[in-house]
Amino acid sequence: xxxxxxxxxxxxxxxxxxxxxxxxxxxxxxxxxxxxxxxxxxxxxxxxxxxxxxxxxxxxxxxxxxxxxxxxxxxxxxxxxxxxxxxxxxxxxxxxxxxxxxxxxxxxxxxxxxxxxxxxxxxxxxxxxxxxxxxxxxxxxxxxxxxxxxxxxxxxxxxxxxxxxxxxxxxxxxxxxxxxxxxxxxxxxxxxxxxxxxxxxxxxxxxxxxxxxxxxxxxxxxxxxxxxxxxxxxxxxxxxxxxxxxxxxxxxxxxxxxxxxxxxxxxxxxxxxxxxxxxxxxxxxxxxxxxxxxxxxxxxxxxxxxxxxxxxxxx
Amino acid sequence: xxxxxxxxxxxxxxxxxxxxxxxxxxxxxxxxxxxxxxxxxxxxxxxxxxxxxxxxxxxxxxxxxxxxxxxxxxxxxxxxxxxxxxxxxxxxxxxxxxxxxxxxxxxxxxxxxxxxxxxxxxxxxxxxxxxxxxxxxxxxxxxxxxxxxxxxxxxxxxxxxxxxxxxxxxxxxxxxxxxxxxxxxxxxxxxxxxxxxxxxxxxxxxxxxxxxxxxxxxxxxxxxxxxxxxxxxxxxxxxxxxxxxxxxxxxxxxxxxxxxxxxxxxxxxxxxxxxxxxxxxxxxxxxxxxxxxxxxxxxxxxxxxxxxxxxxxxx
Lengths: 315, 315
Description:
CATH class of the domain at 46-260 in chain A: Alpha Beta
Distance between the termini of chain A: 40 Å
Oligomer: homodimer
Largest interface: A-B, 77 and 77 residues
């Protein structure tokens, strides 16, 4: 592979050239050795995009909701990017095909950029690939970046931890899902969206959520934001404006309480740590010999870990 | 807290005293400073337990299947331990209550030990807490350890990566779940179990799975194991013996192809790395100042990471 013209790419991305943006995200996805240079070139232009995370179990209508939100933000004159993260997929080929389908009526709109990222199995994984893609889109001048995930597992929670505001989507009649996920989703949701609200049970789902929210658990420290519950029928855009309003209300609340700055500080800190850990891991070198002694019962894994780092770390 | 009598605890755990086993696992869960000493005392007695991972979406009947397997292994004269891992729960209080309920007819059976672990938010998380709990049970002489998880997300995949043999459970009529999870479950399943096989659609689910398996994707390198598909009605123990047989067949296949040793080597290596990374992370110290400069766009996260490690790592 030839050298990458990083400065040129970043300049063209700043001029909103979609192919340059796509190329930069590909470099991130591939864990290119040019990443530090890319990150350095992007840094001065970051910090402006509003990042909205979208998560929920399969079948709740995340893609449809994302598309409806894209339309609503476009109507408000904002440039919008979407990153669809699939932590369980090792493929990006299928993802690319999906992107073309998803672009749909946005295909000729230069104010919209949609990209799937298959992050599983990548070196360092989600923990830093997605944040770097966000930096690309931020520097490229997108006002809003929607980060959509496939489910509500731990890795999804990590992804939405990147967001300024996190939407958790549910649909009526998925009680099992609520039950299974409730510990997690109550903590990460800034706005609950009950989609497919024209179906039976939507009111009950909304009531259940409000009850769960009323039980609290979010008041560990600092000011308290109570996530609103918004009902939508994303397929017909019903209620989507109310979601946009709820996002705006959350942003205003965060600005007022210093929470936006606090979240971004935590996010940057986590990002730095993830990269540092990844860098350190590459210096460890092979662990096979130590692992063999652990399997044989000659050494315990803590002692082995000490031996692994003793050659690399200062006392 | 007083000092922990590690040698005494390990000795009593080796004598199959349930309270000593429980106490050692609590030390693991709490990330006790005595952990390295515990691990060193356990090491000579490890490597004998057969570890079976059990995963699947909520509602497929994991707990019922686990209990049926416990009964089957007990009938075969084996001592059996269960670790139920809930990566989304920050609580262990509720888990304890759940354990008493789950013990059910095993409550007076000293050959059975059941324990829930809530691993979320723990320092280092799943990546090393669960393996250490496995070491406790292994050293305590359990012949089989079943590791059951709540779902099929990324963290579940990490958990089952601990297992010698991984069962993936499905139920009829959960097509969405198959679709969403298929990339992941095809790779991790050594045995597929279609539970609730008395329901409509069980044959179709089994056929779909067999078709997916036939498409391959597992033949990247080394010998090929084709996961069998076993139908069960766990509530009435129907088909459970066939699951036990499938597990035995997989174990025999692994032994024949050197795969068991290879898996355990990989597992130990990952465990050592996770502990080492955790140790390194604690040495990094606070990242707030660097994070602030990244948020301000003065520094990129890669450069910040270099600064973070430069004070700690040898050149």
